Amino acid sequence: MKDEFLSAMHLPEQHWDCTLDQISPELSYVSTIKDYVANIGDNLDKGRGLLLFGPHSSGKSALAAIALKAALVKCQKVGLWVRGSHIAGHKIEEDLYDADSTMYERCHEVPLLVIDELILRGTSKAEHFVEELIRERVDERGAMILTTNSTPRQLKDTHPGIAEVLIEAVEPVKIEGTNFRKKIKDGWSGS
Ligand SMILES: Nc1ncnc2c1ncn2[C@@H]1O[C@H](COP(=O)(O)OP(=O)(O)OP(=O)(O)O)[C@@H](O)[C@H]1O
Ligand SMILES: [Mg+2]
Hints:
By secondary structure, this protein is of the alpha/beta class. It has one domain: Rossmann fold (3-Layer(aba) Sandwich). It contains 10 helices and 5 strands; from the N terminus they run αααβαβααβαβααβα. The protein has helices at 3-8, 29-38, 40-45, 60-75, 87-93, 103-109, 125-139, 152-158, 160-169, 180-189, and strands at residues 49-53, 80-83, 112-116, 143-148, 170-174. α5 packs across α7 and α7 packs parallel to α9 (160-169). The radius of gyration is 16 Å and the shape is globular. Residues 14-15, 18-19, 22-23, 56-62, 117, 147, 149, 180-181 line the site of adenosine-5'-triphosphate.
């Protein structure tokens, strides 16, 4: 996999080498993710995505990265990784993606958009831009993978507008059972 493509997708380097092989196959979500990745072309064509929710360090962002890499390798589709909290800044500041488009435009155009850490608190102008992007992508059948620590129920309670449109576009998958950061720490404390 060419590093230049991983950089073009803005995939954080810590997730470049993440694979499904490093996850215990008994965990219930693994087969759902494997199926999604196995059918990635069809899923992208139909605008089908995932809502990966669960506790910290359970590997949600890594799974989103695995799907982004699969889209590249299996379908030659260059997606984009964006942090939820940066979306409003991209819109307001008109940050450039390249000579032709801004980051916010790119967020609309890509065949797969990962929104990492969808954190929504109360209502604000910033959240309005996140909602606008999500609604437009759902309308255009643009596939999205979102990671969040909120449960679908919490999203529904706090942001019914976003939750309602996401129902059409993403399958909620609970990610739990491994603490990947603890694994990393244990490795460091070993002799
Ligand atoms: N399948 C995997 N293969 C290799 N490394 C992994 C895998 N899953 C997670 N990791 C690594 O473990 C660390 C923690 O995982 P990750 O960032 O995906 O957790 P998270 O659930 O998104 O946590 P948070 O809720 O804090 O964002 C990261 O550095 C990640 O790259
Ligand atoms: Mg994460």
